[in-house]
Amino acid sequence: MSVLIAPSILSADFARLGEAIAAAERGGADLIHVDVMDGHFVPNITIGPPVVKSIRRVAHVPLDVHLMIEEPDRYLDAFVEAGAAMVSVHVEVLPHLHRTVHAIRALGAKAGVVLNPSTPVVALQEIAGDVDYVLVMSVNPGFGGQTFIPRSESKVRDVRALLDRAGNSAPVEIDGGIDQHNVARVVAAGARMIVAGSAIFHSPDPERATRELKAAALGGVGSPA
Ligand code: DX5
Ligand code: ZN
Questions:
Q1: Is residue 68 within 8 Å of residue 38, measured between CB atoms?
Q2: Contact 20, 13 (CB under 8 A)
Q3: Cβ-contact 108, 86 below 8 angstroms
Q4: Residue 47 clears pLDDT 70, i.e. is over it
Q5: Helix or strand or coil: residue 4?
Q6: Ligand 1 atom nearest to 138, measured from its CA
């Protein structure tokens, strides 16, 4: 796999989501990243299945749905039915993570697990062979436009090594504070799915920003990790 770019619509104008998604797709977006927040797990509230369903109708690429909510098990079928091709859940809220991962897969979606910045990589130890991707949060989830936490770079490397030891080639995704200047470093560390919100949708030209982020990301492929 090369590097996939997943623009996060959290930083887009919610009244013009269709246009924002079309621009990102023209720029080469491989996925559309959808941030779902409940005001409990994170201090912000965003969207639910009806909006995912509307986005599904206009997007041409798969929807990567990031659930920052408590009790995600209650909503998995609703999000997959709405059109999520990928669903990621936070290890911090799930005592039965193995069950949840397999429930996502049973619904026909790819199952991702997410680590907050303060959550150690070892939390994935027993699940590493079962996941379709791992999302490393490089900011504390809840808001777009935050600053990349530098330690996330070595965390990506450690997650990659853990997956490799488990014999799982599942990609590592990174989310938070990614821009043209730091993307090559996280790709060199092993990230292969890149979420970016403000770097794309706060730019005057989201199409061009997507294209440039992808070009910058590809610069990190093959670099020493
Ligand atoms: C943060 C979200 C991110 C966010 C990234 O809680 O999970 O997906 O939209 O935004 P930027 O790229 O602006 O940090
Ligand atoms: Zn996200």
A1: yes
A2: yes
A3: no
A4: yes
A5: strand
A6: 14
